[in-house]
Write a structure and sequence with these properties.
Length: 340
C-alpha cells in the first residue's frame, strides 16, 4: 500500500514577500476546526537568515488542498532570552474538550543553519555558549526540549511551558486527543543515556507533569533502524488508535512513513504495524531542498472516510498525501504485530 500524493504538491511554498518565511515552510500541524468549517494549518516557517530562527505561520483551507495564509506576521514567534529562543519547531495539534493543545520543540539558543558544519556556522556568526558545570544540561548542550501551548481561536496563544525532561534531547512529542482511563497519553523520542533511539510512551493526570516513559517501539525493519518517532496525532478508529510514524534507515538516512495501530484502552500495546513503508521521497520537492530525501508527516485530518496527511518535504515545503481510512485498516489487519 502507498499513499496518494497530491498532484498539486507542494501545497505551501516559501513566501518571498515575508522575510520570516522566505526560505522554508514545513512540518505543519493541521486540524479541522468545526466552528470555522475549515482546515487550519500551523506551519513552521524560516526566513533567509543565518540564525535560522523558526516561527509559526497560520493558513486555512475549505477543501484541505488549497490553503491561504492568514497573516503577514507569525502567529507565534521566537523571543529573545526565553527558554524557546531558538524558535518553534514541528507543531502537532489536538482538540481536547474544545481547546486546541499544541506541542512544539525548541532549543534555548539558536544554532544557525543545521545542515552546515560547526565551523561554517561560527563564520556566519553563531555563538556557542559556555556554561559552568552547575548549569542545566539543556543549556550546556543546547538540547531540544518540547513545550505545550494552547489556543481557543487560532488568534491568541498561551505558552504553558516544558513537558519533557530537560536532561534529554526530546522531540516528536504528540499528545492523544482524549484521555484514556482518565490519563493523558504522550508519545516522544527522547535520546536517553540508556536504551535505543525509539518511540516512547508516558502518562499524566495533569497534561503538564509526566510519568517515567517506557519504550513503545524500537525499529525492526531496515527502513526504520536508524531513527524513528511518532509523526501525526493518533486517530481513533473502530479498530484502535491509528498512528502515522516516521522511520530513517541507517545507511542513506532517508525519511519514510509507516502506520501503526495501538489498543484503544491500552496504547502501550501495538496491535498491527505496516512492515513496509507507505511513503518515501520520490519527487524533486522531496529530494531537492534543505534535507534531500525527507517526507515528514506532522498533521492528519479524517473527513468522510479520507485521511489527509500533511508532511514536510525536503525540509523546504508543505505537501499532502491522502488515503482512504478503510484501506489503511484493511492493510493493518494483514499485518498484525508480534514483537520480535
Amino acid at each position: 500500500m502507498k499513499l496518494k500524493k497530491f498532484d498539486g504538491n507542494p501545497i505551501l511554498k516559501p513566501n518571498p514577500d515575508n522575510g520570516w518565511e522566505d526560505f522554508a515552510v514545513l512540518n505543519p500541524a493541521v486540524i479541522y476546526d468545526e466552528k470555522m468549517q475549515k482546515f487550519v494549518m500551523l506551519y513552521r516557517a524560516v526566513g533567509d537568515e543565518y540564525q535560522h530562527r523558526i516561527r509559526f505561520g497560520l493558513a486555512t483551507s475549505r477543501d484541505g488542498y488549497n490553503f491561504q495564509r492568514c497573516s503577514n506576521v507569525p502567529v507565534m514567534d521566537a523571543r529573545d532570552n526565553d527558554p524557546d529562543e531558538a524558535g518553534l519547531e514541528d507543531a502537532r495539534a489536538v482538540n481536547i474538550d474544545g481547546r486546541y493543545y499544541i506541542t512544539y520543540a525548541s532549543r534555548p539558543f539558536w544554532a544557525g543553519r543545521y545542515w552546515l558544519t560547526r565551523e561554517e556556522r561560527i563564520k556566519q556568526g553563531v555563538i556557542y555558549h559556555t556554561h559552568p558545570d552547575s548549569a542545566p544540561t539543556y543549556l550546556k548542550e543546547n538540547l531540544t526540549v518540547s513545550y505545550l501551548a494552547y489556543t481557543d481561536d487560532w488568534k491568541t496563544y498561551k505558552r504553558l511551558g516544558k513537558i519533557t525532561d530537560t536532561r534529554y534531547d526530546d522531540r516528536d512529542v504528540i499528545i492523544f486527543p482524549e484521555r484514556i482511563n482518565g490519563m493523558f497519553v504522550k508519545l516522544s523520542r527522547p535520546v536517553r543515556e540508556y536504551g535505543p533511539r525509539a518511540m516512547w510512551i508516558s502518562f499524566s493526570d495533569t497534561i503538564m507533569e509526566w510519568g517515567e516513559p517506557q519504550v513503545l517501539y524500537i525499529g525492526e525493519e531496515w527502513w526504520e533502524k536508524g531513527r524513528l518517532g511518532g509523526s501525526c496525532p493518533p486517530i481513533r478508529t473502530k479498530d484502535g488508535w491509528l498512528l502515522v510514524y516516521h522511520g530513517v534507515d541507517e545507511e542513506e538516512m532517508i525519511y519514510r512513513t509507516g502506520f501503526m495501530l495501538l489498543d484503544l484502552n491500552d496504547p502501550t500495546k501495538i496491535l498491527a504495524k505496516t512492515k513496509n513503508f507507505v511513503m518515501e521521497p520520490e519527487y524533486d520537492y522531496e529530494t531537492k531542498g534543505i534535507y534531500n530525501g525527507c517526507v515528514f508527516p506532522t498533521g492528519i485530518v479524517e473527513r468522510e472516510g479520507l485521511l489527509y496527511i500533511y508532511y514536510g518535504s525536503a525540509d523546504k515545503y508543505v505537501s499532502l498525501a491522502t488515503v482512504p481510512l478503510d484501506e489503511v485498516l484493511a492493510e493493518l489487519k494483514l499485518n498484525l504485530y508480534s514483537k520480535k
